[in-house]
Structures are given as C-alpha cells and as structure tokens.
Specification:
Elements (H helix, E strand, L loop, with lengths): L1 E7 L15 H11 L3 E5 L8 H11 L5 E3 L1 H5 L10 H21 L2 E4 L15 H18 L4 E3 L13 H11 L4 E6 H7 L3 H8 L3 E6 L14 H11 L4 E4 L7 H16 L2
Parallel strand pairs: 1-2, 1-8, 2-3, 3-4, 4-5, 5-6, 6-7, 7-8
Helix pairs in contact: 8-9
Bound molecules: L-Erythrulose and manganese (II) ion.
Manganese (II) ion binds next to loops.
Length: about 270
Amino acid sequence: MKKGLVICGPDVAWGPLALLSGTFEEKVLEAVSLGYDGCELMVRDPSRLDWGAIKRTLETAGLAVPQIVTGELFGADGLVLVTADVQLRSRAEQRLCSVIDMAAYFNAMVNIGRVRGRLDLLNGMENAWEFATQQLRRIAHYARTKNVRIVLEPINRYESDFINNASDGMRAIEELECDNVGLMLDLFHMNIEDASIEQGLLSAGDKLWHVHIADSNRRYPGSGHLDFNSIFATLKDMGFQGYISAELIPFPDPDVAAQKTIELLKRCEKL
Ligand code: LER
Ligand code: MN
C-alpha cells in the first residue's frame, strides 16, 4: 500500500477536495516531508501547464504521480462526456485526451469520476447506458494508444445518476472490455452507496487499482464514523498494492487535514 494525497496542479488555484497550502513547489516539499509517497495532480487544462517544470519539481523532491484527477474539468469548466450537447461532449473528449497525453508523460493513470456526466443529460435517449459506455470506450481506446490506464470511479447519486457503487463499476468495466480500464473506489461515496464498504472493495478484486480515502463526513479519517481498522484489514487481505490517497475537505485547514490523514495512514499500514 502506498500513501497519497490530492494536490492542485499549478493551473488550479483552489480545489474543494485538495490538500496542502502554498505554492506548487511548497506543497510538493511538504507532501514529502509528511511522508507521502505520491500526489494526485488535480488539473484543469494541460495545455496551459509546463509539464517539464512540474516533472522536475516532483522528481527532485522524490514524489510520484499515481494519477491525474479530472474532477475540475467538470467542477471548474462544466465539461461532461455523457450529455446530449454535442459541442460540450466534444470539448470534454478533447480535454480528456489532453489529460491522457499528460498522464502518459507522467506515467500516471487518469480517473473518470464526475467528468463522465449523467444519463439524465441525454434527455430520455433510448439505450442511454449503451451510449454512455460507448463514450467511455472511446476515451479508453485513446488512452490505450498512449499506454495509459483509466480508473473509473463510482460516485454517489447526488453527483451522477450512473455508476454509483462498486457493483455498477464492475458491470461497466466488464461491458467496456478494455484491459486498460480498472476501478477506483472512494470511501466517501462507498459509505453512501455500497451496502458494505468491505464487500464492495472485495468485489473489485484485482480490478481495484486505486482508493480515495476520507471519513464519512468527507473530512480527514478519524473525523467521522468509518471503521478504518476493518477497511485496511480488507485491503491487506486482498493484497492491495496501489495508492490510498486522501481526497477530502481541507478542514480545519489543508495542512492540518494532510497531517491528520498521514497519521492515520501510517498507523493503519502497521496493522
Ligand atoms: C468527486 O466527488 C470525486 O470523488 C472525484 O474523485 C471524482 O470526480
Ligand atoms: Mn474521489
């Protein structure tokens, strides 16, 4: 198990679920000094970023990039893949392809959460699910040409109306039939949608490639009522080798939240 956290890339001034404060360079140094192994970069538009400079900062500090997070493509720019709006989905596709190019450069995965959109944006289209999976397949095929893995993230019903729990996620992965697509599970969403967090994790098996950690109230672990001893025991039993990465509300501030999270991660990895 590796320890990660979400930080804003240089083109995102503030992320609702990103940690650490200061300049990008200061965040990277702080992540390393706290003991994190890697950071997920929350980006908005890779064409505005100096990939070489970011890579040098990360490599000099010794911080890996397990994945590029796409939440702000939706959060800041409203981009979605599944919508009846042809222009909008084409802009979302183009932007996602440029995120995939960037991920290839960083040898990182790309997550698809809120940016996938919603079936109800298809205005009652027949075969909405098939249309949605076809949209995801197009992205996965592009990613395969770049040797990039995609992680599909089930998210709760208030943020999307499809792929809400681990079982939906596994169904989508089976139907996509793309070996470069796996599942990432976010404990916050699982607490709302999965009957059992432990069973949901187990059901993903070796398709579980990444985990987002937060407590039930989406604050740092220990602030809510999730049973982390049981969750970590399950991940250990599964032989999970990927990242457990903090994506949570920066409360009481983005540095304390990162500090509290690493304390829990260090305690749980010893269990
Ligand atoms: C948003 O709730 C989330 O969990 C992100 O990782 C997906 O966009
Ligand atoms: Mn998440």
